[in-house]
Design goal:
Helices cover about 40% and strands about 20% of the residues. By secondary structure, it is of the alpha/beta class. The strands form two sheets. It has a nine-stranded mixed sheet with strand order 3-4-5-7-6-8-9-10-11, with helices on both faces. Strands 1-2 form a two-stranded antiparallel ribbon. Helix 2 crosses helix 3 and helix 4 packs across helix 5. The radius of gyration is 20 Å and the shape is globular.
């Protein structure tokens, strides 16, 4: 597409009118259409050489890179965890070369982010580099920011897997609307992937697509890396037996409890859960406006120092609303896939232990399905992602 034509097309997308045909309603909460595209913001183009350079710097494979890419921030309509209308943002990346105009789509779910400014649609970083890598092979790449990150309003409902999967599906719908104006079309094939928090989001999205929640999209494969698929049975015990490093245990626990309390009301006053001086600041730290390094500097080194005695024991033996919240999110592997599913993890992962992926594979098997588990060995959480990428990039077909 010529530059002038592209500019005209993008201008027409800045403020769309009424919902397009086939848009999903919000289930009775207002009149907004789920997945309705609100705006497209061009984020520039990157040539093939730059894609290769950035991928190499990040330790990612480069042998599938064929084209340069163009990136866009999408803003679209979706729902809050309570079912009310809201908006979210995400990154759409398209190949800028090649003759094919109908593209398969990779949906990449990002890992834990506490700061909205690090989301792929607003900042350079690993998730933007990964999106370019997938798109440079001749695919559309959709990277949702989830709720409360990027330019979306409010705070992020961390580990609310249903709303993260819903926001991901709604971004697919928005990307389907945006693509024709960018001289591309999504051909309906979807390959779901993600790292860490994005691992369980990829599984939840795969489950939703497999159940036919939007027949315009056909799930073809899932490849998830290092997801916390089993909070109650695997992730929680690992916080206390040393399999999760102390710093990670403190950060994840503080983020999880403050975010989930907004949804499930574990406590009325943070002093019930957190020791002084952390009780006075922990909720403000996880307001989507603080980078992780700044948050970590204000938290203690161990869970014993973070939590009151009562909540230390409650976390070791969860019950009531806390247990309900955990079980509400431990559903992502409860389905029978009819497409290839690969779970990548690592024995040496001290953020999200291998036991999560082992549990996921067992749950899928219990439903009559099969998931292939790849153990990358005695390496870290992020290194496992780097080592898994070559297999994933080759497993997902391009144009």
């Amino acid at each position: 597409m010529a530059a002038a034509a592209a500019s005209a097309a993008l201008a027409s997308l800045v403020a769309l009118p009424a919902p397009s045909a086939g848009a999903q309603t919000d289930g009775g909460h207002g009149t907004a259409a789920r997945g309705e595209l609100i705006s497209v913001t061009p984020l520039g183009t990157v040539d093939r050489a730059r894609v290769v350079e950035d991928a190499r710097k990040a330790g990612y494979p480069t042998d599938t890179v064929r084209y340069g890419v163009a990136a866009y921030r999408l803003t679209y309509r979706t729902l809050t965890p309570g079912g009310n209308p809201t908006t979210a943002s995400g990154l759409l990346t398209l190949p800028s070369g090649g003759g094919a105009h109908r593209l398969p789509t990779v949906v990449h779910g990002h890992g834990t982010l506490a700061y909205r400014g690090y989301a792929a649609s607003v900042a350079e970083g690993p998730d933007r580099t990964v999106s370019r890598l997938y798109a440079s092979a001749g695919r559309a790449t959709v990277a949702p920011d989830y709720l409360g990150l990027g330019t979306g309003p409010g705070t992020h409902p961390y580990i609310d897997n249903r709303s993260a999967a819903a926001a991901s599906l709604d971004m697919l719908r928005a990307a389907r609307q945006a693509a024709p104006e960018l001289n591309r079309r999504l051909d309906g094939r979807v390959y779901a992937t993600g790292f860490s928090q994005g691992g369980q989001v990829a599984m939840a999205l795969g489950r939703a697509l497999s159940s036919g929640q939007d027949p315009r999209f056909r799930l073809r494969a899932v490849a998830a890396v290092g997801g916390a698929y089993d909070i109650e049975g695997s992730q929680l015990p690992a916080l206390f037996d040393g399999r999760v490093g102390p710093g990670s245990a403190v950060f994840y626990t503080a983020y999880y409890l403050t975010a989930q309390n907004r949804l499930h009301h574990f406590y009325a006053d943070p002093r019930e859960v957190f020791r002084a001086p952390y009780a006075a600041q922990v909720e403000a730290l996880f307001d989507s406006h603080h980078p992780a390094d700044r948050i970590a500097g204000k938290l203690p080194k161990t869970l014993r120092e973070l939590l009151t005695d009562q909540w230390f024991e409650k976390l070791r033996n969860p019950s009531g609303p806390l247990l309900t919240a955990m079980r509400a999110n431990d559903f992502t592997c409860d389905w029978k896939p009819d497409v290839p599913v690969t779970l990548h993890s690592a024995t040496g992962d001290r953020d999200v232990p291998l036991a999560n992926s082992q549990s996921c594979a067992r749950r899928i098997a219990a439903h009559g399905g099969r998931a292939h588990l790849t153990d990358q060995g005695d390496i870290s959480h992020y290194t496992a992602f780097q080592r898994s990428l070559p297999e994933i990039t080759h497993a997902f077909p391009a144009t």
